Amino acid sequence: MIRALALMAALATLPAAARPPRLTLLITVDALGSDVLLRNRPRLQGALGRLLDTGAYYPYARYAYAKCRTAPGHTTLATGANPWRHGIVDNRWVDAATGKLVYAYVDPTHPVLEATQKPGGDSGPANLMAETLADRLRLATQERGKTVSMSFKSRSAIAMAGRLGQAWWFDASVGKFVTGTWYTKEFPAWMKQFNERKVADASFGKKWELMRPREEYVGEDDRSYEADSYGLGRTFPHPLTGGLTAPGTDFYKAYAVSPDSHTLLVEAAKAAIAGEGLGQDAVPDLLAVSFSGTDEVFHEYGPYSWEMQDTMLRLDQALGALFTAAERAAGGRANLTIVLVADHGGATPPEQWAEAGLPAQRIQPKTVLQDVSAMVKERFGPDVTVLMEEMDVYLRGPALESGKVDGAQVRRAVADWLAKQPHVLTAVTRDELYTAPDPMGYLAAVRKGYFPGRSGDVMYVPRPFHVLYYAPDGSNHGTPHSYDAQVPVVFAGKGIKPGLYLTETDPVNVAPTIAALLEMGMPASAEGKPLTEVLTGK
Ligand SMILES: [Zn+2]
């Protein structure tokens, strides 16, 4: 009797079983490098600022693979794996069977629904080689927990939805959210209704104005290396017409750059919360929202621009409405966990770096391709073809297929040639990827991003401040250097121990941490680990 009472007393002091949050809001801010958030943070007085103040904030998380781009970034966040496991090595690659450039989430048997399918364009998860959080959640809850994933970009939405969530992305050719037939054969009523509201069209003819007085922005508005796309111009105010007289594709593209795109995503997310009943019961749901406007602004104007400063201020505001809606849906803050991450950072326009005195240069991929091709043709004849996607070089052609020319020899020659170029740090063939000496440690990053049959035959890493970009202005990302690879990771709310965590983590740990929080097993290919220091276990 006494022993039984003692046991009961002991049990009573044990914490109640930890329950996962009813709703997890996973926010990706596209191209939000650590540096951009740190620099803008003092001015963030809204929802984003509060999230950093009240959450577990890692200012420094670093992707471990070399090609820091959108599709691999989102897929790593979704799977807890690097591209060497999840297979999404870049936004695009050269398809081994056809020799054509395809998007990572090409899925010919499951085309886009309610918009024209672009040949080789993203539409479904067919190429995804790993399990996502969304997949795991669906199975772990025995098909009761839901994931809805939304973004302006197809690759971001699909990565986060995996195979068993819903993916919605904004299609600029029709000005509405679409999905692929993998996910559904017919739009649910809530999405039909949302699209019918034509929220984007209400911004037609508007001007993107500065949110704060001009003197609060650092630097200059007009810089010669900023891009001028879709009639937006380089300076405030930016007209939102796309140069058209009525809403059409170029308007929607201009809109995608503007902060109004963030407002639209928040509205769409609210419609999803209501339409799918997210957070309504104890079975956890996941709402993944990837804000793409930050990336568009980054590519057009660069990370120091007034446009980026204003975008951060406006995102800080826009997130408030999303957090409020999510809290309400989950039945209060106590049932909600918010995670905020980024898929990569980004380089400064090289001319701006050069102006400041750094050894920077803009490299035209076309020029590199022409030079490599000329060298290959001269040494190995006209029947070897060179293709390039970012820093991956693909070698094709009848001479290689017939064995007339030794492929390994061509690859070696291309790597040797690349290694001698002033903008190249290191180059490696796929034959030597695992055996070549790696004194600087960059090949380790190339390996983590390598997937046979998708990655190049030769891969290289450019020197820091050397920006490979097709455009004569704007900027790019896609290297293992800190400005591209380093991003913030923030957890807040239910089950999270707040604090500033200055240790460098890896975004590969995000999915395992969420999986632990949701009390389910790790995604099948996860190599990251739960960040147990932020988990309260309650
Ligand atoms: Zn991105």
From TrEMBL:
<dbReference type="InterPro" id="IPR002591">
    <property type="entry name" value="Phosphodiest/P_Trfase"/>
</dbReference>
<dbReference type="GO" id="GO:0004035">
    <property type="term" value="F:alkaline phosphatase activity"/>
</dbReference>
<keyword id="KW-0732">Signal</keyword>
<feature type="active site" description="Phosphothreonine intermediate">
    <location>
        <position position="70"/>
    </location>
</feature>
<keyword id="KW-0479">Metal-binding</keyword>
<dbReference type="GO" id="GO:0046872">
    <property type="term" value="F:metal ion binding"/>
</dbReference>
<dbReference type="InterPro" id="IPR026263">
    <property type="entry name" value="Alkaline_phosphatase_prok"/>
</dbReference>
<dbReference type="Pfam" id="PF01663">
    <property type="entry name" value="Phosphodiest"/>
</dbReference>
<dbReference type="InterPro" id="IPR017850">
    <property type="entry name" value="Alkaline_phosphatase_core_sf"/>
</dbReference>
<keyword id="KW-0597">Phosphoprotein</keyword>
<feature type="signal peptide">
    <location>
        <begin position="1"/>
        <end position="18"/>
    </location>
</feature>
<feature type="binding site">
    <location>
        <position position="91"/>
    </location>
    <ligand>
        <name>substrate</name>
    </ligand>
</feature>
<protein>
    <submittedName>
        <fullName>Type I phosphodiesterase/nucleotide pyrophosphatase family protein</fullName>
    </submittedName>
</protein>
<feature type="binding site">
    <location>
        <begin position="153"/>
        <end position="155"/>
    </location>
    <ligand>
        <name>substrate</name>
    </ligand>
</feature>
